[in-house]
């Protein structure tokens, strides 16, 4: 039942493997965020209703759910596939399947068929599902379990960098100079072929890089499998709430900022503020990678975090079409984020609980105040979302041993929250509650995340004990 590290290095050096996987996370984030470009593009191309255009996200996130469910069922009855073939082969299969999804955009565009576009997105989602199951777990294994959250925050930060620049670069690739009066299906052919080519190049790179192999011997079948671990079961709902809350807030920000009692902003201006929401997640993940790194002493952490925060803020400033005075409010959240990390003291569970608490306060301010106070509060949520996925993920799979990738498939399945929670908020937004009060839905999401963080902080000895028993 022991985990095998087949690397021959006496003192493993995981720098190159981590850099290689980080490149993959960047491309993965970039292509995922292209969905936000595809929705208005396909809506105009095929004259779709809003519900019909949202089938883009439905097919993409539906692939996550169905793919993860199939993986869990197969691993439960036949044994975990990743344990059999290894993480490297699993990652390569996910990349190649994602590349195939990108290639399928070519016939979809050639025949100008919406159903073919949705099919291509489904295949792309299946490829990313395999990457979610394998790559996240693999990063957590590239070093000590104590520093796993820091490593995953770093790779997730580059994933967020991809999502930050995708709307700018992706919009140019699809819409060109901005003249969308003559939108044609062919506009997606070359960009997605380029994405497929880059993914194949990344696969070739990973194939030729010597990655350490982590595999486990399976000697037990039946029972609950990974579900027998309580902290994993709690973490599954945690991922569901986090992804649901993050996507719901992001989906309603533009409509929220357009309200007369909030900002009365136009859609063109609101989109730039939306970039601050997602860009904040990128800043927070870079800071989290530093704060949760156990190998950096306290004084250096402070210096590195200040330099990183300033640098990434400057990067976002260069991307979005906002003046410094319009962005200056975000400095307050940077300072608050910095102190929240200090209070968290590099403990993933404690930091998770603190960040969830802050987001609850920010959401309540957004609901019960108006003007700039409400506007800035909703935009500040992104930077405190930053470390949630990686911290929930690493806390949930801690000590799972041979069940790690099976547990990872269950966590990926929970990404379904990104499809369901926004729909629930949408029902409230269409009712007498209105858009502003509908944000009570993500409040409950973050309340659960707060409870999960407190539970893990109080029961970390249980997780460590589980780790020792399972032999991980």
Automatic annotation (TrEMBL):
Organism encoding this protein: Flavobacterium ginsenosidimutans
Keywords, ordered alphabetically: Cell membrane, Membrane, Transmembrane, Transmembrane helix
Keyword Membrane: yes
Entry's localization field: Cell inner membrane
Ranges where the Major facilitator superfamily (MFS) profile domain occurs: 17-461
Protein name: Sugar MFS transporter
InterPro entries the record matches: MFS, MFS_dom, MFS_trans_sf, MFS_TsgA-like
Membrane association type: Multi-pass membrane protein
